[in-house]
Amino acid sequence: MPVDDAIAAITTPIGEGGVGIIRISGGEIKEILAPFLNSRFNWQARYVHFTPIYDPQTKQVLDEACVIYFKGPASYTGEDVVEIQCHSSPYILQQILSRLIQEGCRLAEKGEFTKRAFMNGKMDLTQAEAVIDVIQADSAQAHQVSLGHVKGQLYEKITQVKSALMPLLEQLEGAIDFPDEVPAIPRETLRHQLRTVHQDLDQIQQVQDWGAWVKSGVTCMLLGPPNVGKSSLFNRLSGEDKAIVTPHPGTTRDVLDVTLQLGGFNVHILDTAGMRDSDQEIEQMGINRAKERLSKVDILLWVLDQSQPFSEADMKIAATLPKMPMIIIKNKADLGDQLTLPDEYSSFSCCRVSAKTKVGLSAVKEEILSFIQAQVTGMNLGFLCNTRQRGCLDRAHSLLSQMIVQLDENQPDDLISFDLRQVISILAELSGDEITESLLDGIFSRFCVGK
After folding, report:
1. pLDDT per residue over 420-431, tens digit each?
2. What pLDDT score was predicted for residue 25?
């Protein structure tokens, strides 16, 4: 498929609105658009031109629009680009787009505008991939990370790592091919250099462990026996009555969830059935579902009744709790304090709350946010990778680990050279310096048509 033909697409969501935008890029764009515009149209770049848009066949006015011309390479795609900003009527947008196709444009594929920007050197692959992350970001932190990728932080770091490896490869291969002219690298020097690069990749990998928190959010589960106020607390945290609350044990059956924004992070709060052995089949199904979800939870919110002593039921639940981050919530603080925790739980963060009077709710949110911030503070979240990039990172890291072991086992230089070339190739794939057409198609298929 040609990459210099004219492509067009509606770039704004379909629906009624003030402004709808059609983007055209590449090809003989002026000749294609000439029948749509007044013969005296001024093609001055980067100016907004208010003009009628004509039907090329009937010469009837389709709409009045603002037309902006971006002369390549100073455009998003690196090609000549025109944006038609008309009224956001689905009928008008489709009429203009269909006539553009009749005049020689091709309907753009998903992500094709950004793909052309990459092909024309306007951005590297990590920046191109970050465009869709910016579009899909649903929290402040995810947005900041995506913008960091657009600015090229990950690409720059991987480029630095590759630059550190290239001289090693050059000297290794030079010493193999021209032993009389190029001295061999001392094994200790090579080992030291590879360990330094390995540590750089370690730092990037460590950031990935918390990447899901930034991109997808942090999941917190309210867990405890029946009637300790989990659902009431869930409603207070969500700001609405999402969960049914009654004085009868076993009211909550299914897992309910709500998403809060805390400090720029998405925090998903789950309400669950009260933990106990029940002879009610439906209630027991709800309890089993809560137990199944535990493995996917980031922070456990263990809710206890502060007005009652620590009971045998509490001890039984405590014995089943997995080893994971936990905040203890002592609810019903308005009814007095009869609760004394066993010594083994004294190190956990603890909040005294009354879901009834709303006292202590802010403290719960602050504890959750403090825990999240403690994990990500000092990390360069600009190094977060998507799934494809993480796969490349893991392969390069694993191969480097293997090479360091092989150096200790006196592996021949030609095999070390082969593996080192593989590491550099994998890193080049991560950054987009080495990429296949099929992989590109897979990456850009995640985009919407107009981007």
Report:
1. 999 999 998 887
2. 95
Q: What is the Cβ-side half-sphere exposure of residue 113, based on CA atoms within 13 angstroms?
A: 24
Q: How far is CA 135 from CA 115, 129, 268, 387, in A?
A: 16, 11, 21, 17
Query: Is 413's pLDDT higher than 70?
Result: yes
State the average pLDDT over residues 76-105: 93
Which amino acid, one-letter code, is at 166?
A: M
- In this model, does residue 436 exceed pLDDT 60? no
Q: What CATH code is assigned to 131-210+384-432?
A: 1.20.120.430
What's the mean pLDDT in 217-226? 87
Q: Domain 7-123 is classified in which CATH homologous superfamily?
A: Probable tRNA modification gtpase trme; domain 1 (3.30.1360.120)
Between 39 and 440, the more confident residue is 39
Q: Are 51 and 91 in contact (CB under 8 A)?
A: no
Mean pLDDT confidence for 300-329:
87
- What's the pTM value of the predicted model, to 2 decimals? 0.55
> Residue ranges per domain, the chain?
7-123, 131-210+384-432, 216-376
Q: Which among 283, 201, 268, 271 has a CA at the least distance from the CA of 242?
A: 271
Residue 18 has pLDDT above 80, yes or no: yes
- Check residue 234 and give its pLDDT: 87
In a 10 Å sphere around its CB, with 0-12 CB exposed, 13-18 middle and 19+ buried, how is residue 41 labelled? middle
Q: Is the pLDDT of residue 51 over 80?
A: yes
Average pLDDT taken over every residue of the chain: 83
CATH class of the domain at 216-376? alpha beta
Contact 273/250 with Cβ under 8 angstroms? yes
3-state secondary structure string across the chain: CCCCCCEEEECCCCCCCCCEEEEEECCCHHHHHHHHCCCCCCCCCCCEEEEEEECCCCCCEEEEEEEEEECCCCCCCCCCEEEEEECCCHHHHHHHHHHHHHCCCEECCCCHHHHHHHHCCCCCHHHHHHHHHHHHCCCHHHHHHHHHHHCCHHHHHHHHHHHHHHHHHHHHHHHHHCCCCCCCCCHHHHHHHHHHHHHHHHHHHHHHCCHHHHHCCEEEEEECCCCCCHHHHHHHHHCCCCCCCCCCCCCCCCCEEEEEEECCEEEEEEECCCCCCCCCHHHHHHHHHHHHHHHHCCEEEEEEECCCCCCHHHHHHHHHCCCCCEEEEEECHHHCCCCCCCHHHCCCEEEECECCCCECHHHHHHHHHHHHHHHHCCCCHHHCCCHHHHHHHHHHHHHHHHHHHHHHCCCCHHHHHHHHHHHHHHHHHHHCCCCCHHHHHHHHCCCCCCC
